[in-house]
UniProtKB/TrEMBL annotation, chain A:
UniProt xrefs under InterPro entries: AAA+_ATPase, ABC_transporter-like_ATP-bd, ABC_transporter-like_CS, Metal_Ion_Import_ABC, P-loop_NTPase
Keyword ATP-binding: yes
Any one GO molecular-function label of the UniProt entry: ATP binding
Family: Belongs to the ABC transporter superfamily.
Xref: Gene3D superfamilies: P-loop containing nucleotide triphosphate hydrolases
Ranges of residues in domain ABC transporter: 7-239
Annotated keywords: ATP-binding, Nucleotide-binding, Transport
Organism (species): Snuella sedimenti
Matches recorded under Pfam families: ABC_tran
Keyword hit for Heme: no
Protein name: Metal ABC transporter ATP-binding protein
From TrEMBL, chain B:
Keywords, in A-Z order: Cell membrane, Membrane, Transmembrane, Transmembrane helix, Transport
Protein name as annotated: Metal ABC transporter permease
Source organism of the structure: Snuella sedimenti
Entry keyword Transport: yes
Pfam families in the cross-refs: ABC-3
Record-linked Gene3D superfamilies: ABC transporter involved in vitamin B12 uptake, BtuC
Superkingdom of origin organism: Bacteria
Lineage: Bacteria, Pseudomonadati, Bacteroidota, Flavobacteriia, Flavobacteriales
CDD domains reported in the protein's UniProt record: TM_ABC_iron-siderophores_like
Family from the record: Belongs to the ABC-3 integral membrane protein family.
Bilayer disposition of the protein: Multi-pass membrane protein
InterPro entries: ABC_BtuC-like, ABC_TroCD
Entry GO CC: ATP-binding cassette (ABC) transporter complex
Location in or out of the cell: Cell membrane
Bilayer-crossing regions: 6-28, 37-54, 60-78, 90-107, 144-163, 170-190, 202-224, 231-250, 256-276
Length: 245, 386
């Protein structure tokens, strides 16, 4: 049913200090899916996203976004890093962080103006954070910070969204609010790729899944491949024990 | 005030502004120590540059010395990347090595050049007005003023042009990279500006004061604002205030100008550290005391809510029961009364409607941890201000 390929990864190998953390990954992500990347700690989930976005340089392999290198397709892609990757004591406001999402389309030197501000306010509205726009970012709760990050990605108005553990350290209400926005994005034909930790919620939240543990174990529709067999291959023999915990 | 005095203050102020701008970003990037490293390890660059140009104010010398600054940064990053030592150790390894090369070079050639280690460490601002820039016999003012003025102009131009890039790459390097603003380019751009500024300021104020002027104003500004532009503005103000008042302190004490400016910076930081409205030590202690009282208040209200039995709510009983000192019980009781949360009839305490609502809301918040429920309460109570 889906044939256009949004993201294509070929033979991707990434190493830190000559130790491969991703080994020979081939991956095709069809347009319009809401996909989870699952795997144990150290499986290379964040590394995969960062390599696709050119933040890390792979030692081998290539990545294509709608058939072209990432450099040429930046405007089609939005990225939500892990919440813990930034210093929330940075002297700035929620609105200003969301405005950063517009910097990509502005390019070097040009400054954001009224149009960008309006887009940022709309994005804040969408994630239910408009009343917090002037709040200093360290004064926000973990869930609110995650919503700000999501708003910053929404303001980019991209076709493909990469999110690194957006549910980490957020309360249940925020988790539901976020997943609803992601589902809306998919409904609008966008492709959403999420590094995800909670295996229980995979079938409920996502329609596509990739199992990763240094190598790619499997990728495809959740209903076809989200099973004990793949989970065991990815997480090792103790998978069932892990889940019952 | 003589024109020499005015010139010294002007030079010191321009140096302070030129240092505060990169300093603000170094502080936000938690790279304060790298400025210390740069300020020391440019010494061999200055000495070698001096051998070549025979002029302490030559642009070639400045560029050569700035290059040594960049080499320092590259070496520190290289050593750090091996994973064998941490960043602070790498800094501690690199700059003494480079600095000592400079010291030896000076010592070996001490007879030939007018550079000595004292002047390098502390600078000699008092002599700056003697070295004039003469163009076909016309006196255009002290050379130092022109050098630092030019550097400041370049710094301000770069800051205005790349403010957004600096901000995003400092806050979130990953996003900056994904958006196409290479954090690497911005990082080395900032390092170059820091190095050039350090060299330009070095002759006037010396290696130690350069670090103080980069870090102390920015660190002070960080404590009193939550806005990057304001942080830059405050850092610049603090730098200039310290430069001018430091000069007059030195004048009055008949002491080193560089030393006096640095002392003023230290005192300024200490004052802000103690008295800053939100992040200052006194504000923090006050807030903690308030929070303790408010937790007590909540405990007390909850006790009243949970016990309908009158003996449990008798004033004297409350004293023993919650196990607080008399003074504390009285504070809490007064606070509750003042906010109309309780009423006392015949020494029996009971919750008012307001007190009841407040307790329910507060408990809801503590259980669900949902911020939306308590937005209205935040203004009245410290406890809920995160």
């Amino acid at each position: 049913m889906k044939n256009k390929i949004a993201v294509q990864v070929d033979d991707l190998t990434v190493a830190y200090n000559y130790k491969p953390v991703l080994w020979d990954i081939d991956l095709e992500i069809p347009e319009g899916v809401l996909m989870a990347i699952v795997g144990p700690n150290g499986a290379g989930k964040s590394t995969l996203i960062k390599s696709i976005l050119g933040i890390l340089k792979p030692i081998a392999g290539s990545v294509a976004i709608y058939g072209k290198p990432y450099d040429k397709q930046r405007s089609l892609v939005a990225y939500v890093p892990q919440k813990g990757s930034v210093d929330w004591d940075f002297p700035t406001t929620a609105l200003d962080v969301v405005m950063m999402g517009t910097y990509g389309s502005l390019g070097w030197i040009k400054r954001p103006g009224q149009k960008e501000k309006k887009a940022a306010l709309e994005a804040l509205e969408k994630v239910g954070m408009l009343s917090f726009k002037n709040r200093q970012i360290s004064q926000l709760s973990g869930g609110q910070q995650q919503r700000i990050f999501l708003a910053r990605a929404l303001v980019q108005n991209a076709s493909i969204y990469f999110m690194d553990e957006p549910f980490q350290g957020v309360d249940a209400t925020t988790e539901i609010a976020i997943i609803n926005i992601l589902k809306e994005l998919r409904k609008a034909g966008k492709t959403v790729i999420v590094v995800h930790h909670d295996l229980q919620t995979v079938p409920e939240y996502f329609d596509w899944v990739t199992f990763l543990n240094v190598k790619k174990i499997a990728t495809g529709p959740v209903k076809d491949i989200f099973n004990d067999d793949n989970l065991t291959k990815t997480y090792g023999i103790n998978y069932k024990v892990v889940v019952s915990d | 005030m003589s024109s020499a005095q005015l010139e010294i203050q002007l030079i010191a102020s321009l140096v302070a502004i030129a240092c505060a701008i990169p300093g603000t970003f170094l502080v936000l990037r938690k790279m304060a120590m790298i400025s210390d490293a740069i300020s020391h390890s440019i010494l061999p660059g200055i000495v070698i540059g001096f051998f070549i140009t025979q002029d302490l104010n030559s642009p070639v010398l400045i560029l050569l010395a700035a290059l040594t600054g960049i080499i320092t940064v590259v070496l520190v990053e290289y050593i750090q990347k091996t994973g064998l030592v941490k960043e602070d150790t790498a800094i501690g390894l690199v700059f003494p090595a480079l600095f000592s090369i400079g010291v030896i070079l000076i010592a070996k050639n001490a007879n030939d050049i007018h550079l000595d280690v004292d002047a390098v460490l502390l600078g000699e601002l008092a002599f700056a007005p003697f070295d004039r820039l003469l163009v076909s016999g016309v006196d255009l003012g002290p050379k130092s003023l022109w050098i630092i003025g030019t550097i400041l102009l370049i710094t301000i131009t770069l800051l205005i042009a790349f403010f957004k890039e600096l901000k995003v790459s400092t806050f979130d390097a990953g996003l900056a990279s994904a958006l196409g603003f290479s954090p690497m380019v911005i990082h080395y751009g900032l390092m170059t500006v820091s190095s050039v500024t350090t060299v330009g300021a070095f002759d006037a104020v010396g290696a130690i004061l350069v670090v103080a002027l980069m870090i102390a104003p920015a660190a002070s500004a960080y404590l009193i604002t939550n806005n990057l532009k304001r942080m830059l503005a405050y850092a610049i103000c603090f730098g200039v205030i310290s430069a001018v008042s430091g000069y007059w302190l030195a004048h009055w004490l008949d002491a080193s100008i560089a030393g006096s400016i640095t002392s003023v910076l230290g005192i300024l930081f200490l004052t802000i550290y103690l008295f800053a409205p939100n992040k200052g030590i006194i504000a923090i202690l006050y807030r903690e005391k308030q929070q303790r009282t408010e937790v007590s208040l909540l405990t007390f209200l909850l006790h009243l809510k949970n016990h309908t039995d009158e003996t449990e709510r008798h004033v004297n009983h409350l004293n023993e029961h919650i196990n607080w000192q008399k003074v504390r019980s009285k504070t809490v009781l007064d606070l509750a009364l003042k906010n109309n949360m309780i009423r006392i009839e015949n020494k029996i305490v009971s919750l008012t409607e307001k007190g009841n609502d407040f307790t329910t809301q507060a408990i809801d918040y503590i259980i669900t941890n949902e911020d939306s429920q308590i937005e209205g309460m935040k203004d009245d109570f410290f406890l809920f201000r995160g």
